[in-house]
Structure formats: C-alpha cells, structure tokens
Amino acid sequence: MTTWYDKAASLQADGRAFIGGERVWAKSGQQFENLSPIDGRTLGMVARCDGADVDIAVAAARAAFEDRRWAGKSPAQRKRVLIKFADLMQKHGQELALLETLDMGKPIKYSQTVDVGGASNCIRWYGEAIDKIYDEIAPTPADSLALITREPVGVVAAIVPWNYPMLMAAWKIAPALAAGNSVVLKPSEKSPLTALRLAELALEAGVPSGVFNVLPGYGAEAGAALALHMDVDCIGFTGSTRVGKQIMQMAGQSNLKRAWTELGGKSANIVCADCPDLDAAVESAIGSIFFNQGESCNAPSRLFVEASIKDRFVEKALALVPNYAPADPLDESTVMGAIVDATQLKTVMGYIEAGKSGGARLLAGGKQARTETGGYYVEPTLFDQVDSNMTIAREEIFGPVLSVLSFTDVQEAVRQANATQYGLHAAVWTADLSKAIQTSRALRAGTVHVNQYDGDDITVPFGGYKQSGNGRDKSLHAFDKYTELKTTWIQIG
Ligand code: NAD
C-alpha cells in the first residue's frame, strides 16, 4: 500500500504562477524557496510575483471580464462548470490534501476532511446556488417598471492567509466566480501550493482562461500591488487586523475599490456553573483551541469559567491535553501538527513567555516539541489565573495556547468578553434559556454559540464585528460582496 510518506517523496510541486490559463514564472525571474514546517525540507521554488505580474494578471482578468467569456454565460452554465470543478477537487483530493499538509503542517486527516472536503463543498454549493437566485421588481407607480438586478463587480482580487489555504481561497473564489467575476487570487507566501493547483483544476473544469488567475508572492509586493491597483474593482481579504487596515487604506488611496475584510479574533468561551454538560464543554473548549494547532481565527482562546466550577473544569481539561500532543502530520492518527513556519513559532513562544512573565500560571505545555525533526511544533499549552489585562488575554496568539479566566457574575464575564478590539466568535454554556438568550444578545461577535462551539456550515455567514472585519464569507450573503446592485427604470407608455 502506498503511504502518505511515499506519496510525499514522489510529489512534484509546481510553484509557478497561473496567469491567463498558463503556468508562468514571475516576469522578474525572482523566486523564493518554499519550506515544509513538518521537517524543514524544501518543497521547491515558488514564483515571487510583484507589481509587473499583477499588471499582467489584472489585464488578463479584465479582458476576460469585458468579453464576457464567463460573465456572459447563463447561471446554469456557470453552475455546471463549478460543479465539475468541485468534482475534480474531490478526484484529486489526496494530492490536494498532501500539498496542504506539507505546505502548512496540519494533520493529513483534517486536510482531507476539513480542507479538501470543505473547499470542494463550498465550490459546489455556490455553483448550485447561482441559478436559484432571482432579481427583484420594485413596487413602483404603474407608469414605470423598476428592476433591481445583481451584476458582477468585475475584477476581484482575493488575498488569503495560510491557516486554511484552500478553504479561505474557496470562500472567496466560489461566490465571486459563481456571480460571474474574474478573479486574481494571492495565496499566502507561506502556503501557496494548493491555490496554484486549484487554478489548473478550474481550467480543466471549463472556467475560461483569464477568469481565474493565481499569483504567489509576498504581501508587501504582490498583495499591495493588487490592493493599490486602479483596475481591481473589489478586494476580498482574509488575514490579520494589522494588514486589513492597510488594505482599506490602499483601497481608499487608489480607486476606492470595495474592500471586504475578514480579520483576527480573540474569542471568548463562557462556561456558567449551570452548564448542562460539563464534559461536553471541556471537550469542546480543549478540542476547539487546539484544532489546527490553534491557528484558527475563531479559536476560543479566552475561556471564562464560573468560579464555583473552575477547579473541576481545569482538572478535566488537563486530563485531555495530552491527547493533543503534536505528532507527525503525515500520520493518519495525528490531531495536532506543525506550526506554519519559524516566524510563527517564534511569535507563539514569545506569547508563552509573556504569559509566564505576566503572572499567569502555566499548567500544561509551554515548550517546543519534536525539535529533532527539523520542523516547528509547540506543546498544547494551558494557562490558569489569567487576568483580562494580560497580553495573552488581549492579543491574538494564533497558536495552541489557552488562557483560563474566572468569573462570579455572568454580566461581568460578558463585559470582559466584549472588552477587546475583536468580535469574531463567542460562546456561552448554560442550561438557563433566558440567560443563554440574554448573554448571546449581549456578546458583540459575528457568531455566538450556545452549548457548543463547532457549529459550522456553508449555509451560515462567517465574519466579525469591530476589528474582526467588515465582511461575511459563506452563505448567500457572500454574494453581496461580489455583486453590484443596479436599478433600471423603464417608462411604460
Ligand atoms: P496576514 O495579514 O499576515 O496575511 C494575510 C495575507 O495578506 C497574505 O496573503 C499576505 O501575503 C498578505 N499581505 C501581507 N501584507 C500585505 C500588504 N501589505 N498588502 C497586501 N497584502 C498583504 O495574515 P496571516 O498571518 O496570513 O493569517 C493569520 C490571520 O488571518 C490571523 O489574524 C487570523 O485571525 C486571520 N484569519 C481570519 C479569518 C476570518 O475569517 N476572519 C480566517 C482565517 C484567518
């Protein structure tokens, strides 16, 4: 039987950009080396695209949009192509999963289910949706007819992060392509491989050349050139709040392109003493923070537990922590893999030091692991006696680090939960229906969970309040980002 190790050994990753239906190197000839966080091995060279390549890709996307080779197809025709695209992703699912794991370090088990499964489902869902959406006729006076129609915005730039490379790309490109736009996607320089392969599969499925282009490269080069480009109509950005602010500035400073941002988080998970199932709450709190090595925007990194049950809760949590010890991402049984690169490893270790020196009590983890592999691994880490003012309670760590805080009054817990620049996700665990509803209403977050944390479906919007961003990925609402609303008045004789 061929193992994941055999497959990894024979894998040839192509790091060239994808512009106008072809694989090309950057105009400058510049490349960068792509290292795997699993063991530091090289995965090959990647095109280091910059402003010159952005100009070419945007021109290709614009030409494809203007001649309507895609936008002019009926929704049913676009649907058929996108469904074929999703089928091809599943057909090549093992290859895509392997690329994702090698490039980003996540366990192969989840690359197959969450990443390939989720991304192909997303492409399929928007394909299925697009020929079921109707426009509107307004209730105007009888001497006229006013049509309210949706049109594609034109050229969409999608800039995505490295934590779910394929899934974040799919959340942008699926609604943008379904609506008839042309797209230029810039994956993170830390994990560019699956996005490039997706472009080939889209072409094979029938997305015309020029409609979907992928430019790997650095943020300050390819990313900024896209955000500043005068011929990009809309930018869909997922990443840090720091860069999100720059994206909005660049949009304003250039052509006022529509700028949608899905940014960072510091989500609060509030467990009340009347929680209906303490074991479920513990499993969810631990499983959700350590999933994807803690590199999830919506990770519940601040755990507020009511003081009367806190010791019991922490004891149960500590019993589960060893299950998340980092292991080889290519082993099917692994649940926690490698941190994406040396820079992120340093950031996470810096926060662990800040937790210790800031006065929090380290109860588990706190160290690097598997250093002999040459890869980047961090032990699942749990801090108790955390105060809301501590750095580890305020800043997004983006690593496997949980901060436990306690409260005696749920309203105080909500106040602290809301006392952050972020507003992505939040949760409350209680058997009291009124308390659940009052608390979920009071929490300033784009998604609030009650007695669970893993509710997730393509049918519901995903995005944040406050500095967690202004956009919503997923669901039919995502079409609002990639379409213009047009009113057409018709005089009736
Ligand atoms: P990042 O902001 O550093 O980079 C994101 C993307 O922006 C990358 O492709 C990067 O190359 C590009 N970029 C960087 N600087 C740029 C610039 N000056 N101009 C244009 N583009 C630039 O974020 P990251 O480290 O890749 O990802 C982690 C962040 O993403 C976390 O904050 C996480 O919470 C957030 N995130 C949010 C969501 C969400 O849906 N809200 C989902 C996933 C990740």
From TrEMBL:
<dbReference type="Pfam" id="PF00171">
    <property type="entry name" value="Aldedh"/>
</dbReference>
<dbReference type="InterPro" id="IPR016163">
    <property type="entry name" value="Ald_DH_C"/>
</dbReference>
<dbReference type="InterPro" id="IPR016160">
    <property type="entry name" value="Ald_DH_CS_CYS"/>
</dbReference>
<feature type="domain" description="Aldehyde dehydrogenase">
    <location>
        <begin position="26"/>
        <end position="487"/>
    </location>
</feature>
<dbReference type="InterPro" id="IPR016162">
    <property type="entry name" value="Ald_DH_N"/>
</dbReference>
<dbReference type="InterPro" id="IPR016161">
    <property type="entry name" value="Ald_DH/histidinol_DH"/>
</dbReference>
<dbReference type="GO" id="GO:0004030">
    <property type="term" value="F:aldehyde dehydrogenase [NAD(P)+] activity"/>
</dbReference>
<keyword id="KW-0560">Oxidoreductase</keyword>
<protein>
    <submittedName>
        <fullName>Aldehyde dehydrogenase family protein</fullName>
    </submittedName>
</protein>
<dbReference type="InterPro" id="IPR015590">
    <property type="entry name" value="Aldehyde_DH_dom"/>
</dbReference>
<comment type="similarity">
    <text>Belongs to the aldehyde dehydrogenase family.</text>
</comment>
